[in-house]
Amino acid sequence: xxxxxxxxxxxxxxxxxxxxxxxxxxxxxxxxxxxxxxxxxxxxxxxxxxxxxxxxxxxxxxxxxxxxxxxxxxxxxxxxxxxxxxxxxxxxxxxxxxxxxxxxxxxxxxxxxxxxxxxxxxxxxxxxxxxxxxxxxxxxxxxxxxxxxxxxxxxxxxxxxxxxxxxxxxxxxxxxxxxxxxxxxxxxxxxxxxxxxxxxxxxxxxxxxxxxxxxxxxxxxxxxxxxxxxxxxxxxxxxxxxxxxxxxxxxxxxxxxxxxxxxxxxxxxxxxxxxxxxxxxxxxxxxxxxxxxxxxxxxxxxxxxxxxxxxxxxxxxxxxxxxxxxxxxxxxxxxxxxxxxxxxxxxxxxxxxxxxxx
Length: 358
Prior knowledge:
Number of strands: 12
Largest sheet: 7 strands, parallel
Helix content: 25-40%
């Protein structure tokens, strides 16, 4: 990115600091997208606000391990155990104020919501007096896991949904997953259809049909779609959108517009502590079986493998389990093995823990 391009992107309407909200369902690839963005920052001052649904901050730790000079400890603010859409006053606004108060304030703020967060209440928060005149929402980016969408995770029967829209103009959702997924799309200025390398051309076309079906609810604007593999998107596409989304809320409908508030009682999260794992391949097979048997939506965490100087990162979306060594264990760092498990309410914590620990 050239110096002139960097200077142009850093500017926004009325001299406000631009902020990009990155949303997307559990496991869509938001953190990978942000890591790629950091790798191509070329000296630009970026600050990150990372929010997760659960007690352990995995995504923030992944980003801190990127080894990029644009991503220091001070550049990452982690807000765990909650959703920004529910904790605006207590968590989000103070986090923004903290970044703006730095001697070298960021040129751009990137906000990663939890996979279960609704982006619209967060965008509304940019009208709070403390930040209204200082920050603007440059754009809302929704990341979609093409493979999960093709498997029917968000709409088991797209044709039936389309028929229902044609007949009644509305859709009655059977699962909270579908509502969260659609709310994220309806607020977006840009939709990144990620993991396209995992789906066939015909499945990808059906995923795009599903997305465009959801976007028929929007009025007066149309989100752009881009394809990505492993979250690789040019920063010039992600930053500098210039949407000022906080001033365009009427064109970003939500299933929760008529509610005074909302909660996440449909979902649950807990942490499983494991002993050291000498056989990562066997662990991955175990986790795949556990996810299939119990309907686990998301697994992620770090594992200690005896004899290995690096920690093992585990990422699971449904029954798709991936592992790789992400960084060296730090001197004096406790080599703990912990997995965050997320599922719908009713997920049997004890049974999952027993099956994972063995």
